[in-house]
Amino acid sequence: MNDETPRRYRGSLLERAAEQYGFSRPAVVPAPISTPDEEPLTLNVRAPEPEMPAIDSRAPLLRHGFEPAVAEVEAPAFRSEPQPRPAPRTGRRYAPIDRVALREGGMLVPGSHVTAMAEEFRMVKRQLLLTARAVAAKDGASAADRARMILVCSAQPDEGKTFCAINLALSMAAEKDMEILLVDADFAKPDVLGRLGLPEGPGLLDALAGTANVEDCIVDTDVPQLLVLPAGTKTNGDTELLASDSARAILDGLAKANPRRIVIFDSPPALAASPAAVLAAQAGQVMLVVRADRTSESDLREAVSVLDGCEHIQLLLNSVSFQPGGRRFGNYYGEAGE
User: Fold this and answer.
1) Burial code of 219-230, b = ≥16 C-beta within 10 A, e = fewer?
2) 8-84+93-334 homologous superfamily
3) What count of other Cβ atoms lies within 10 Å of the Cβ of residue 249?
4) Is pTM, for the whole model, over 0.70?
5) Taking the mean position of all CA atoms in its chain, how far away is CA 49?
6) Are 290 and 154 within 8 A, CB to CB?
7) Burial of 47 (0-12, 13-18, 19+ CB in 10 A)
8) Mind listing the pLDDT tens digit for each residue in 131-168?
């Protein structure tokens, strides 16, 4: 695979994903996903790199097989700046999200007009929500709570996981009758607060260490229905804390605290830090971000093996270059007539 030039594809997104990694298998559970991360591609928060192509998505990996999914995502064009809502009357800490930082990072901006990327994340979240409902209907309440816990991961750094996690959370927060909790679980290199423009504070690691109550560490934002849980105070024993019995109870409690809550974890890369495997065993779904111009098939297969503690693993093919024409979302909302 050429690491410098993104591959170009023809045909459907399903065919592109299958061609990229040579995977195919009968459908089992629907899935989707897509976008860029820490400091790659077109949409970088702090130091944008050379322009990268659109984002593809739609290829879930379910344990022992691979199934293509769908979705493309492009950097959105933004018009007006939505006004933040007043601070909510809750006992939690409150901080407004920096919409300028979102726009400069190429991410979704709450209240902005519908874009291609917004449409793609609508498709992504819909499949994740359908999977959660299917698990609940099949396996009962306990499995339903776990299915509402989604781990966003990648095989290696700079493949798009944090970008995906934030945009997925922003998109899901637009759902009705739902609460979204975005957890920064990349303890070695936490970046969620920086990208959202939120202040540092106690977080998940403090709760796992027994020095804080996890619900008290959650930050309420000015985006309706979006909460953020910081990584917390760094420690060299993060994996051991996560693997403890008390940690399992705390993580389970994040979902059980509100039956309408979806918990999204931004995880460390699976092949770069051990906490990812521990978190995968706790989550009900894994969204594995794969960068088409960088991730090797061997890294992909190894990451799936590391994350095998989760039953539902879905693959998001990111940074794919598209040929002119074909399916494109977002423009329809700005077109006159039919």
Assistant:
1) bbbbbebbbbbb
2) P-loop containing nucleotide triphosphate hydrolases (3.40.50.300)
3) 10
4) yes
5) 21
6) yes
7) exposed
8) 999 998 888 888 899 999 999 999 999 999 999 999 99
